[in-house]
Design brief:
The chain is elongated, with a radius of gyration of 24 Å. It is built from 11 helices and 15 strands. It has a 6-stranded mixed sheet, with helices on one face. A 3-stranded antiparallel sheet has the order 12-7-13. A two-stranded antiparallel ribbon has the order 1-2. The two termini are about 35 Å apart. By secondary structure, it is α/β, with parallel strands linked by helices. It has 3 domains: about 80 residues, Arc Repressor Mutant, subunit A, CATH 1.10.10.10; about 140 residues, Periplasmic binding protein-like II (D-Maltodextrin-Binding Protein, domain 2), CATH 3.40.190; about 100 residues, 3-Layer(aba) Sandwich (D-Maltodextrin-Binding Protein, domain 2). Helix 2 crosses helix 3.
């Protein structure tokens, strides 16, 4: 029996509290995970997990083994990384998650550059505005917008953007154009809500003071693209990232209002679990994103109306025979 493999399987089962989820994230058949745990318990001569149809729980022996196995695997990863990261290209499957707007408009159009630089990384990109549990869902790294609240993750700020307050010409023709935040009273907003149902209030900054304004509205959404669409349809005033609003501001489909009352800056951070802080593939992705955002003025909080990112080299088609083995892009 491969004891290191058994340790990894056992730790993963405990992390996600499920044989099936562990199998999915490890890329193994469920039967193989079950057999590995059974063989490990037989070799140790103790029961590590109490299994019922509803849940898994650690025995006292299992808790002790988990502590030791986690420490051994962490030490082993650190030792291996110290020898390999400096001389080997990062490789393996990398699962990342990010807001749909950032992924669709910024990351996906330039992901070919990451692929060209790190051809041995198979990257799986999830795009959603919902918060996820990195450990439970087997995700290596996430990009998140706004202030951070989860202290169990390592965070690195990679960029920022300043939202813009907008409305459609049709809405402003019906309701008038507010000149101050006091004149927002009586106006409608497109509201954005979180998974818990909490509404995000509009935020304005002037002379270093932040003012939050709550407006009622006919519709609330929890998706950034839907939010912009509702503003385009004249359902109310909205605050969205300038990189999302820019094409509509250029075309006149949206109008910027309250220019003297700027929305507060929104940081963009990369987050990853403590046990993956030395992973070359995670480091490679975070460094690449930071470099990408550094070249985009709008992703550094600058307020410009020109093209937000410098022209980047388009991918050149290559013969199928030249693509490295295992180099794939998977968008989920």
């Amino acid at each position: 029996m491969d004891k290191l493999h058994a340790m990894r399987v056992f730790v993963r089962v405990v992390e996600v509290n499920s044989f099936t989820k562990a199998a999915d994230t490890l890329g193994l058949p469920r039967a193989s995970v079950t057999t590995t745990i059974q063989n490990l318990e037989a070799a140790l001569g103790v029961r590590l997990l109490q299994r019922t149809t509803r849940k898994l729980s650690l025995t006292l022996d299992g808790a002790a083994y988990l502590e030791g196995a986690t420490r051994i695997l962490s030490d082993l990863e650190e030792i291996e990384t110290s020898f390999t990261s400096a001389r080997k290209t990062p490789r393996g499957r990398l699962r990342v998650d990010m807001p749909g707007s950032v992924g669709r408009l910024i990351i996906i159009p330039t992901i070919h550059e990451f692929h060209a630089r790190y051809p041995d990384i198979e990257i799986m990109i999830g795009m959603s505005d919902r918060p996820i549990d990195l450990i439970q869902e087997g995700v290596d790294c996430v990009l998140r917008v706004g202030d951070l609240v989860d202290s169990s993750l390592i965070a690195r700020r990679v960029g920022a953007f300043r939202p813009v307050t907008v409305a459609s010409p049709a809405y402003l023709a019906r309701h008038g154009t507010p000149k101050t935040i006091e004149e927002l009273e009586g106006h409608s907003a497109v509201n954005y809500f979180t998974r818990t149902g909490k509404m995000h209030e509009m935020s304005f900054e002037r002379d270093g003071v932040i003012h939050e304004v709550k407006l009622n509205g006919p519709v609330s959404v929890n998706d950034a693209d839907a939010y912009v669409t509702c503003a385009l349809e004249g359902l109310g005033i909205g605050q969205t990232a300038r990189f999302m609003a820019l094409p509509h501001l250029r075309s006149g489909a949206l109008v910027e209002i309250l220019k003297e009352w700027r929305p507060a800056l929104m940081p963009i951070s990369a987050l990853y679990p403590h046990n993956r802080h030395l992973s070359p593939k995670v480091r490679a992705f975070v460094d690449w994103v930071a470099e990408l955002f550094e070249g985009c003025p709008l992703m550094q909080g600058e307020e410009i109306d020109g093209y937000e990112c410098p022209d980047r080299e388009k991918p050149k088609p290559a013969p199928a025979t030249t693509e490295p083995e295992g180099a794939r892009l998977c968008v989920v």
